[in-house]
Specification:
Layout: E1 4-5, H1 6-19, H2 25-37, H3 41-46, E2 51-52, H4 55-68, H5 74-78, E3 80-83, E4 86-89, H6 102-108, E5 116-120, H7 126-134, E6 139-144, H8 147-160, E7 165-168, E8 181-184, H9 199-204, H10 218-228, E9 235-239, H11 245-254, E10 259-264, E11 270-276
Parallel strand pairs: 5-6, 5-8, 6-7, 8-9
Antiparallel strand pairs: 1-2, 3-4, 9-11, 10-11
Helix pairs in contact: 1-2, 1-4, 2-4, 6-7
């Protein structure tokens, strides 16, 4: 049995995924087929003898159906996502890590040696684990209100062999008073914007990690209010939505942070507000 050629399988998948309105049909098809076959994307392109046969045919058809019909994100179908220099297991218990969130890690790399840093709203554990992997000296904690997300994050930490203190907490409520710095990617999408988002997000990613109040700032406002009473925390980096940075910066200054700056992502959007004391 010769099976179907890789080119034929990809071409059929691209047609279906493109017809569904997905933005990157060729990339999606290649990633899914590579996952099903257990090979790299590069091998799909250079191995002329590689075919899709047996159980792989149905597996690939099923993956394409999930992508095209259900608009399920590719990362949830494959169950993994790269972030900085690590690969994370991902599923619907937590948001899929975004490239723009890597900015939190980049900024935190400048923290003092052995600083105690908390990754708040950790989700899959992406920021905490990437930071620990790149700065092993840091004493990293991570918290989330969702027990399911924490279960995923803990599993990622165990698989990667990275030591992080995991905490379940609503913001800082149950976080010990031994933290020097906070990084946070909170839910900041305004509830009114739900209709503007792609089906991949609204159908599959956890709403608790996405949406927050009419303006998207309720949770960030609460967090900064809590930080005002935690004078040991002298460094805070918060990811924000487009257009939110000026308001968040003003909140940070009112809470006693003297040095406040906004940092753009690769698209030029002010994505992270960095607030420091002194």
């Amino acid at each position: 049995m010769t099976g179907t050629s890789v080119a034929q399988a990809l071409d059929s998948a691209v047609v279906a995924i493109k017809a569904a309105g997905c933005a990157t049909p060729r990339l999606d098809a290649e990633v899914l087929l590579a996952h099903v076959l257990g090979v790299s994307r590069e091998r799909l392109l250079i191995d002329r003898e590689l075919t899709v046969r047996g159980d792989a045919v149905q597996a690939f058809q099923g993956a394409v159906r999930r992508r095209a019909v259900q608009r399920e994100p590719v990362a949830y179908i494959t169950g993994r996502k790269g972030f900085r220099h690590i690969e994370l297991a991902v599923d619907a218990r937590a948001l899929i890590p975004r490239p723009e969130t890597e900015l939190l890690v980049e900024l935190a790399l400048a923290l003092a040696p052995r600083a105690r840093v908390l990754d708040l709203c950790t989700g899959s554990g992406a920021v905490a684990l990437a930071l620990k992997q790149e700065r092993a000296d840091l004493l990293v904690s991570a918290s989330d209100i969702s027990p399911a997300a924490l279960e995923l994050a803990r599993a990622n930490g165990a698989r990667l062999g990275l030591e992080v203190r995991w905490l379940q907490s609503d913001l800082l409520a149950l976080v010990p008073d031994d933290i020097d710095a906070v990084v946070c990617n909170p839910p900041y999408v305004a509830t009114a914007q739900r209709g503007e988002l792609e089906p991949e997000i609204t159908r599959h990613e956890p709403p608790l990690a996405l949406f927050c109040s009419d303006d998207g700032l309720e949770l960030i406002t609460r967090l900064i209010g809590q930080l005002a009473g935690r004078e040991r925390v002298g460094w805070v980096a918060i990811e924000v939505g487009q257009g939110q940075a000026p308001r968040v910066a003003a909140l940070a200054r009112a809470a006693g942070f003297e040095r406040v700056s906004a940092h753009p992502d690769l698209a030029g959007i002010e994505r992270v507000v960095l607030a420091q004391r002194g």
